[in-house]
Specification:
The protein is of the alpha/beta class and 266 residues long. It has two domains: 119 residues, Periplasmic binding protein-like II (D-Maltodextrin-Binding Protein, domain 2), CATH 3.40.190.10; 95 residues, Periplasmic binding protein-like II (D-Maltodextrin-Binding Protein, domain 2, 3-Layer(aba) Sandwich). 38% of the residues lie in helices and 24% in strands. It is built from nine helices and 14 strands. Strands 8, 9, 10, 11, 12 and 13 form a six-stranded mixed beta sheet that branches. Strands 5-1-6 form a three-stranded parallel beta sheet. Strands 2-3-4 form a three-stranded antiparallel beta sheet. Helix 2 packs across helix 8 and helix 2 runs antiparallel to helix 9. Bound molecules: glutamine (GLN). The site of glutamine has 12 residues, from loops.
Amino acid sequence: MKSKWYLFIMVLVLSTILVACGSDSEEASGDSGDSGETYTVATDNNFVPFEFMNEETGEMEGFDIDLIKAIAEEAGFNVEIESMKFDGVVAGMQSGRYDIGIAGMTITEERKETIDFSDPYYDAGLMLAVSADNEEIKSADDLTGKKVGTRSGTTSEAYIKENHPDAELITFPGIVEAYMDLEAGRLDAVMYDVPNVQYYVANDSEGLKTAGDILQGEQYGIAFPKDSELVEDVNEALQTLIDNGTYDDIYEKWFGERKYGTESSE
Ligand code: GLN
């Protein structure tokens, strides 16, 4: 009798330890308890302030990271975040390798042929960055013959090819490499997403400024492999977070007062 109880308690203790270890190793989980499914989330390795590596903690941080964790908590699942180059996120959705992709990814008709998107969660667009002392490039009309850098596989690359075939387009795997070449004077301009250009110019750059207006309106969506059953749950959770103010809290944390954000504006 005694040994039976002993065995029972041992099994209980052991399984508790196992469960605890299991959820601990779920790096960057949505903290949604230990009952829900765990989904893999592909994100971009460097797209400030939506996702980037905090060098001190070694963890991915940013608006998208906070948002997907809040969505996971609301919808009752866990997330395991993996960062990669932007085109890897797109490819990872097409192949179904990851369950969810969040990477400041613009919803486009072309991508919608091979990827599913959530409802839009952020209003963005494209903009130019130039050297602070550049008086020549005041808008995209001044790009003829100029060296314009951007990141491969993105909406900016497509935009330049289509609208500025007379500019010299140079693409980089990471957008920070393009900014650094601009700072070093090897490029005349960089075209990229408005929030990223503005954030980089204000916080991370040496001697850059923005030039001209927003060139093309865009909206970001959370991505899924085609016909994913998660789309509905994620949309529902996203709407709840917009309605209950959580979205606004996350927005303010990364952007301050809403300037060109989604839904309500001040
Ligand atoms: N929004 C851009 C696109 O979808 C770039 C996003 C990014 O670099 N993460 O093409």
